[in-house]
Write a structure and sequence with these properties.
Shape of chain A: globular
Radius of gyration of chain A: 20 Å
Structural class of chain B: alpha/beta
Largest interface: A-B, 25 and 30 residues
Distance between the termini of chain B: 30 Å
Number of helices of chain B: 8
Structural class of chain A: mainly alpha
Number of helices of chain A: 10
Helix content of chain B: 25-40%
Strand content of chain B: 25-35%
Order of helices and strands of chain B: EEEHEEHHHEHEHEEHH
Strand content of chain A: under 5%
Largest sheet of chain B: 6 strands, mixed
Oligomer: heterodimer
Order of helices and strands of chain A: HHHHHHHHHH
Distance between the termini of chain A: 24 Å
Shape of chain B: globular
Helix content of chain A: over 70%
Number of strands of chain B: 9
Strand order of the largest sheet of chain B: 5-6-7-3-8-9
Chain lengths: 254, 236
């Protein structure tokens, strides 16, 4: 556990000090501030525009960090040969993969927490409508992005960093649409199409199930038992993705 | 300390999955407390042998017997090491020490001592991206020694260093020898090997073609010169 913590702390330090991360955060904050302009031309929908646009900005920039940083996380260590230093010490591949994931997860938490609190304050000060659901929505975006990170890390053990990033973004997009795919298949005519979409539904992480954007802007109710069940499902998805990444990484030689 | 027996390594390369033998039956013996030099032209299999010893590569066949209790008693400096740009020297060494599960107090004590040993006390708070090549090599040696290993493997520790850097690295190896640490290192700089090593092995084509004491090598050469002995063995 100490070794996992050491790798995690090291990864956190490396990623949080990277200038690229700073640029991404600045862009994200600028986007959230831009929601003020949209709110000003939205005729009585200020509250809705700030929260909706702000949450989309957080998801989008979080996705950039999750897909692009996670893809290079393990590959960079292999390409720059820092793995020689790590694996010549008593560190298992399992400890390495979990440490890298937890380190980036800590960075992601710091970044998302900062952006969500910023959006919360903006909603409070400008639209005079602070809501606890906004903070919860931020937390669930974090969970969605952890799934993307775990899947991207899995892809990065098999392919190049660029391809792993692209696949990571695809997982996010598919995860947002998987529920629609299942709904559409039910209106279809063939059994094959229905079976195929059911397989896709269970294979792709259902990220839309924990999307609280509609509830935050007052367009839907939150079903707590369902939400908790979907969160457990996504955590299990992360564990399985990381176990698969470890299994593949264990077979690699340097 | 280390016994390598009939070590073979075959890798598959290219689209046609062609098999290439990198190691063709390496036999090697490194004794307790000695400084051992592994020599050979580029592509002889020196680095691959070290990687197999460390478990970074799996052998196709053959055996490696280490006289130490796992990686916890080993130290390793890779060739042309690259470290984490945004960490300071002290942070990097703390990270390495934590990988050996050392507690915080012990980490700090050892880091301070090792930084002094490699002459980097004043650069401890500087990020590694600002280090010169020589400083990186010294921090690399420091990380290899953080666990006070009984056996140290150094892959080309003098490569790319200026004369002062080379002397400093040689002094570090000499001090390790005086403390009773076993050192195995690769090098193309034969003058350094002659000055530091008690025994050497010469590799070519993935196997050891000569192994013995440096004194024997020098005695068997008409000029008493390791470079000339090396050339004769490799060409024969």
């Amino acid at each position: 556990m100490k070794r996992v913590a050491a790798v995690a702390v090291n990864t956190f330090r490396e990623t949080i000090r990277d200038r690229i991360l700073g640029v991404i955060i600045l862009f994200a904050l600028a986007m959230i501030v831009a929601s003020l302009w949209l709110a000003s031309i939205s005729l009585g929908q200020e509250d809705r525009m700030i929260k909706d646009f702000g949450l989309v900005a957080i998801s989008l920039f979080g996705l950039i960090v999750a897909a692009f940083v996670a893809a290079s996380l393990v590959r960079k260590e292999v390409e720059r040969r820092t793995v020689f230093i790590i694996f010549s010490k008593p560190v298992s591949r399992n400890e390495f993969i979990w440490g890298k994931f937890l380190g980036l997860a800590s960075t992601m938490f710091t970044v998302l927490a900062g952006m969500t609190v910023f959006l919360f304050l903006l909603a409070w000060l400008v639209a005079k409508s602070p809501s606890g659901e906004l903070l919860l929505a931020g937390l669930l975006i974090y969970l969605q992005l952890l799934v993307v990170m775990a899947m991207t890390m899995l892809f990065s053990t098999m392919t190049s960093a660029i391809l792993a990033s692209v696949w990571g973004v695809c997982v996010y997009a598919a995860g947002q649409l998987s529920h629609n795919v299942l709904s559409l298949s039910r209106t279809g005519h063939t059994e094959v199409a229905h079976a195929l979409s059911t397989v896709v539904f269970y294979l792709v992480p259902n990220l839309s199930a924990v999307d609280l954007r509609a509830a935050v802007v007052g367009e839907g109710a939150t079903s707590w038992p369902h939400l908790v069940a979907w969160c457990v499902y996504l955590v299990a998805y992360i564990v399985i993705a990381l176990m698969a990444a470890t299994w593949i990484f264990r077979r690699k030689e340097f | 300390m280390l016994a390598v027996r009939d070590l073979h390594k075959t890798v598959v390369v290219g689209f046609r999955r062609r098999k290439v033998d990198i190691l063709n039956g390496v036999d090697l013996e490194v004794r307790d407390g000695e400084v051992f030099g592994l020599l050979g032209p580029n592509g002889a299999g020196k680095t691959t042998t070290l990687k197999v010893v460390l478990g970074l590569m799996r052998p196709t066949s053959g055996s490696v017997e280490l006289g130490v209790d796992g990686l916890g008693e080993l130290g390793y400096l890779p060739e042309n090491p690259y470290f984490y740009d945004y960490l300071t020297g002290r942070e990097f060494l703390r990270f390495c020490a934590r990988l050996f599960s050392l507690d915080a107090h012990e980490c700090d004590t050892r880091i301070t001592a090792i930084l002094a040993d490699v002459g980097l006390e004043r650069a401890a708070g500087v990020q590694l991206r600002k280090f010169s090549k020589g400083m990186l090599q010294r921090i690399g040696i420091a990380q290899a020694l953080i666990n006070e290993p009984r056996f140290v493997l150094l892959d080309e520790p003098m490569t790319g260093l200026d004369p002062i850097g080379r002397v400093e690295v040689k002094e570090i190896i000499q001090r390790l020898h005086e403390r009773g640490t076993t050192v195995l290192f690769n090098s193309h700089i034969l003058a350094d090997v002659a000055a530091l090593c008690t025994r050497i092995a010469i590799m070519r084509g993935g196997r050891v073609i000569w192994q013995g004491a440096v004194d024997d090598a020098l005695a068997s050469d008409p000029h008493g010169d390791l470079e000339s002995f090396f050339m004769e063995v490799v060409r024969s």
